[in-house]
Design goal:
Number of strands: 3
Mean pLDDT: 87
Largest sheet: 3 strands, mixed
Low-confidence stretches: none
Helix content: 40-55%
Shape: globular
Distance between the termini: 44 Å
Structural class: alpha+beta
């Protein structure tokens, strides 16, 4: 279910179908969606292109998540449409930090 929501959100953002004010959604990447055990909450990890203004982007997505959820309801058919929580994806920063540490130890 998480993968289905991830793909649907990616297409919604790519096509700018949610019409989120003050945000170009076609530059947003959905890297992962984690579902709760009861499938009622979906935590979507997003990152804007280049990682610029990530916090601001996530805050706008949180504020207008009802618009995105409305468009998502027309894309997928499941018994309960989950509430969508947006979070900044920190995995790329973490991977870069680990890579730097490995390079430092190899010197």
């Amino acid at each position: 279910v998480g993968e289905m929501i991830k793909q649907s959100l990616g297409m919604i953002f790519l096509r700018n179908e949610a019409k989120v004010p003050n945000l170009e959604t076609n530059t947003i990447t959905v890297t992962e969606v984690k579902m709760s055990q009861d499938l009622k909450i979906a935590k979507a990890f997003v990152l804007p292109l280049g990682g610029k203004n990530a916090e601001e982007t996530v805050n706008i997505l949180k504020e207008f998540s009802f618009l995105i959820r409305k468009v998502l309801s027309k894309k997928i058919t499941i018994k309960f449409l989950p509430k969508i929580l947006f979070a900044k994806d920190e995995s790329f920063d973490y991977a870069e930090k680990i890579e730097k540490l490995i390079k430092q130890t190899n010197k």
